[in-house]
Write the C-alpha cells for this entry.
Amino acid sequence: MAQLVRTLSENPKCYLLHRVIFLLLIALALTFFGSCYLNPRSQKLESIQAGAGKIVRKIHHLQGVKLPRTVYPQPNVLRPSRKDVQVMTPWLAPIIWDKTFNINILNEQFRLQKATIGLTVFAINKYIIYLQLFLETAEMHFMVGYKVNYYIFTDRPAYVPHIRLQKGRKIVILKVWGYAHSQNTSLHRMEMISNFSEQRFHQEVDYLVCADVNMKFSDHMGVEILSSLFGTLHPAFYGLSRNHLPYERRPRSQAHIPEDEGDFYYIGALFGGSVPEVYRLTKACHEAMMVDQHNHIEAVRHEESYLNKYLLYHKPSKVLSPEYTWDKRIQENIGNQQQVGLPSNIKRIRFVTVK
C-alpha cells in the first residue's frame, strides 16, 4: 500500500486517472444499489417499460388490426331504458328485462372472448320425456351462434333423443343414478354440478347455465344473461315484499333467512355463471343440504331455499327478470284468474314451464 501511494504521488497523471476510475465505480454502484436494489418499485417499473417497448417495436412490423364496426343509437344517460321496472340492484348489478340491453353490442364483446357455454340439465326417471322439447327449442333460441355443450345428467342414456345440432355444439351424456323421490334428485343435483365443475367443466367451458328440464325455450336467450354469477327472479314472487317471500324461516335450518333480511326470491330453474362461481355455489348448497339432512330437516322449498340463502350473502353480478322463467299457470296459482294475458311489465317470455 505504501509503495502504491509513493508511486501515485510521484506520477500525478496516474493518480488522477485512478481517482477518476474510483469515483466512477462508486457512482455506478450507488446507481445500481440505490435505484434498483433499494427501490424495487423502480426496478419493476423499468422491467415493465422495457417489455412494453419491445411489444411496441413488434407491433410496428405488423399490419393494422381491423375491428368490426358496430353501429347503434347513442345511449342517453338522461333517458332510462325502462321506467316501469327496476333495472339495477342496490349493489349495482343489472336486472335484465326486455329493452334494457343491446344484443348486438353484447355479441361483439362475447365473440371477442370466444366464449363456450355449458348448459346442464337433469333428465331423471320420468323427466326424460321433457328432454326432446327442451333440446329442440334450445337449438332454436339458446345462445344461437355460440359453442354450447349440453351436459345431460340422466339414468337413461338410451332414451336421450338424437337432435340435429348447430355447428360447434355437442351433447355430453353423464350417467347418474335414478332416485325414487324428487327431493333426492334435488339434493344430488347440487352435488353432481359441483363435482363435475371441479373435475371437468372448468376445462371445457367458460360459463355454466343450470336449467330445469321441464321447460322450453320460447324466445331468444343469449349472452345478455352471462356474468360471473346470476340468478333469476321467481315469476310468482317478484312483486312481493320480503316478509311475504317463501324463504326458509326456521333457525335450525342451514337455509334460514331472518324475517328482516332478503333481497329477491330466486327460482331454482335457472341460475349460473362462470365455472368457478357455479362450483362455489353448488358446493355450498350441497354441504348445507347434507347438514340439514343429517339433522332431519327438509327446507321448505328444497334446493331453492339453499340457493336463495347463498345468493343473499353472495350477491349475484346479474339478475334475470321473470321473463326468463315464466309459468303460464301463475295467475291460477295466485288467484288471478280474471287477468287475461301477461302482466304489463312482462314483454317477452323466453323460457317457460311445460305443463
In short: The longest strand covers residues 116-123.
